[in-house]
Amino acid sequence: MMRRRTTLLTGCTALALALGATACGGGPVSAGDDKPLSGQTVTVAGVWSGSEQKNFQKVLDAFSAKTGAKTQFVSTGDNVSTVVGSKIEGGNAPDVVMVPQVGVLQQFAQKGWLTPLSATAQSTVDAGFAPVWKKYGSVDGTLYGLYFKAAHKSTVWYSPDALAQAGVDTPKTYDDMLKAGHTLSDSGLAAFSVAGQDGWTLTDWFENIYLSQAGPEKYDALAAHRLKWTDASVVTALDTLGKLFKDKQLIAGGRTEALNTDFPGSVEKVFGPKPDAGMVYEGDFVAGVAKDQFGRTIGKDADFFPFPAVGGGTAPVVSGGDAAVVLKDGKNAAAGMKLVEYLATPDAAAVWAGAGGFLSPNRKLDLAKYGDDVTRATAKSLIDAGDTVRFDMSDQAPAAFGGTKGAGEWKLLQDFLRDPSDPKATAAQLESAAAKAYQG
Asked: Which of 5, 316, 328, 340 has its CA 20 to 30 A from that of 417?
């Protein structure tokens, strides 16, 4: 993406400050020019489509209004690595890529595709973000990625009416959650809707259980493959997850139906016109589907409780996110860097926060900018977690293991959902796939 300038024109300093450090990029600029990037176009690639792309465009439009730059967004689909790699090879590299996986960010950096973030962006990150976000955006001590959008993946969403009718309170422990699920089932509604058709949702289930049960040090070691997947802690977590999968009372339609349910379908089973379950586990983005597709009022018809503590551990906070990185081969990399500097500011985050379907890891963003109390509570939980947040483990892994449909961890956990009878065998299969992917 954008190439960092090592020297800034002193005549632009005041202007840069006035523009929230988005000025002085891309071509000759006079000190009195209030649209310093006029005539330049910044190309941005990312996985977003639909409402996410529409809302991100509002952020890009705000950047354009501030700087005069035009923007062009290119949706890559899920396979960001392949699409961006082919664009670089074809001489058509975007300036900025919104990278959804730590493993892909590391891969891009190791291939020499990325420009380190500017001093301005780095100082904004230092001032506004918990150090853990800088850690996940860095490779070998160099900061390449700015985490603009975050996901809170430790939220269990439920129908308040369903729980109230069953006389169930929101649980504080994992065992209490399963007990509440049985009470729901006895009242005629399955406990959980599980999106087994999408393997990534199953990795999220495992990660929350593992982080709470095994603790953050082992979580970090397993994420980096310093700990083997055959470790007893992995088998224990799989056994805990398997007890949920085995229980016919707890999963809507049983394991077979779960394997044929994708993520939007899992939300529909709880918040659609004909509910089959009272709860669905997934990230804060469940709220967007419940609201936009099924007309639910967040906080009234749909609410969440934090993923509860497992086996005497601490309640987990697992996150994901999209990091803005700058490609060296982008045609307008300098202007792209100015976009990343803007994305680091609370002003940029506020644009999408107001539109909904968004969480920011920027602790300088006023929580009042979010549109509803539930989103504010989710955002506060993420910010308050500070450095105890752990990034989605599968997103830290090489894509061949943690991010490929029908392969690696996604497929093996789907197989485990299909037959959860042998956690040790599944752990061995996971280790074999991980060893191959990390070696590659």
From this structure: 316
